[in-house]
Structures are given as structure tokens and as C-alpha cells.
Amino acid sequence: MLNFRTVKLTSLSLAVASLSLLVAFVFLNGNANSKAVLVAMGDYIEGETAISTIALDFTELDEVYEVRRSCGCIKVRSDGDAPKLPFRIPANGSRKLDIELETLGIVGTYHASVSFLGTRRNRKVEKRFDLVVSAYTGWRVEPAVVRFDDCEEGQLLHASLSIYSHKRAETLQIENTKVSDESRMNLSLVLSEPDKTVFDGDYKLYATAKLGFTFETSRTTDSVEFVGCNGKVKVVVPVLANRKSNGLAIKPKSIFRKRNENAKSIVWIEHSSNQPPTLITVGSDFQVEIEDAVQKDHNRSVTKALISRRSGQGDDVSKTQKLVFESTGSRSELEIVMED
Question: Averaging pLDDT over each range in 112-126, 219-233, 236-250, 304-318, which range is the top one?
Fold first, then answer.
């Protein structure tokens, strides 16, 4: 008769033996991934190249046959050039390599990695380095957007821009300036005086730019560009211009009413000043209540108007009527369509 305890112990022995064989197989043939090494590369201005030196130790790798990078912004250098693969690590020594990370387009904290795949005593090994770099904007331009409103064709306009550089950006210099249309735009740059530096937080006033701009109705979007760091850093400031409004805009431009309807209809009248519009139509079957104007932006206001039938009016009214409003010399019409 088979002993149950003997069977149980035999099964446990077989399981332990199988696990030992599996560990041995992985040790001899599988990948051995050591713990990733954290490399804090430091703080840089956007566009600069972050550089750190790492070391591959013989105790972990004796040969490297592949390098994997998490992004194209990473380069691995050995004495200034990319190392030729495969390469060996000196016995009982190490191999130093430079890791370069381009920060162009990076603002804030950025994480990346580079891995070295190779062998150690005929085992596949991966050695990974986790990279952390911080980049901040070297320049700040105020205003971030130049806007001209109520422009007329051929009108000459002017704007002033302040260019600030980060306190740590001692080597940052504007190398070139561009405008989107040289035939209508000109830009002059005046560097700030060192003994009259104006600070704003972590930034200092670097230069002041004077923009001259001629408005054309066909072009409502332009730009000014500041270039530095050997062309790597570019700050683009949009220049937006809107043509002068006709003064009044009624929304909706038409309303539909039943002949026997007594309710009030609401329309909105946008105008170019705080002067409320006035009704100049005479002999209409409708009356208008105009409320106080509400400021929309620095040069536009909106007024609410309530349209209703005059008291005592019968159903015998014109099919279509128009109300004309006026404000600061501009006029606009509201169409009222009667429905049966």
C-alpha cells in the first residue's frame, strides 16, 4: 500500500528540483536586468544640451552589442564620437561614456532613458540609466500677443515689446529677428542698460523691441520672431489686426412674429462705444425698450433691446417692417417679418 506521506514529500522534492532547474536556466541563458541607475542631469535653458557622464562596470557587463534610447533627443558619446558596436569593457575596469540630451522643445521636468544590452559571462544583460532633466524658457516676451483693433486700410500702427531673459541665462543672446512681412513691418531692438536692469521674478529685462506695422485688410495675422542659441531657440509673437467695425451689429438681423402676438422679442445690438443705440424709425407698428449697455471688451459694448407691438394696434399690419438703429454715426436695420 502506497504511503500518502511519502507521496507528498516526493511531490515537494520534485517541485523544488524543477524550480532550481528553472533558475539555473535563466541564469545561464536568460536576460539579467540590473536595477536602473537614476541620472539627474540638472537644470538647463531650453535649447541647451544636457551632458552627464556614466560608467559601465566590468562586474555587470563585459561586452555591449546594442544601445537603446527612449527618444531621438539622446546621444551616446565616447571621446566625442558614437561608440562602435560591439565594444568590450576592460577587465576589472569600466568604460566611461557621455550622455547628451537636447532640450529643444522641453519645458519643465523631462524623463528619458538609455539602455545598454550586452553580456556578462555569456549571459544576456541589460543595464539601464533613467535620465531626469529640467528645462526652463530662456526668454519671455511681453505682450505674448500683439493685437490691433478697429484698424483702417493703410493705417500705420506701433507697438512696444519687452524681452526678458532668465537670471541664469547669462549667455543667452538674440542673434536674429524676423517679421512675417518686411514690406509692411519693421522691428528695431534696443538692449537694456546693465546698470538699469529691471527684474520680474526669475527674469530680467534683456531688450525692448519697437514694432512698426502697416495694416492691410487682406492680412489679419502676422508674426515677429526672435532667434537665439545658434538658431535653436525661437520665440514667436503673433501680431493680430482687425479691421474697423461698421459700428453697429444686430443679432439676429431678422425676427418672426405672429400677427396677434403680444410678447416681447429680444435682440442684441453690438456697438463700438458705450453710447446706447437709438431708434430712428418713425411710424412703425412696433416700439423698442433699450436697456443699459454692457461692456464687451475695451472698445465694444452690447445693448439688449426688447421689441413689442404698440398698444392699440390691430392685426392689419405690414407683412415686413424694418427698424433702423443708430449709434455714433453708424446705422443698422432690424427686419420684422409677420406670420399668419
Answer: 112-126
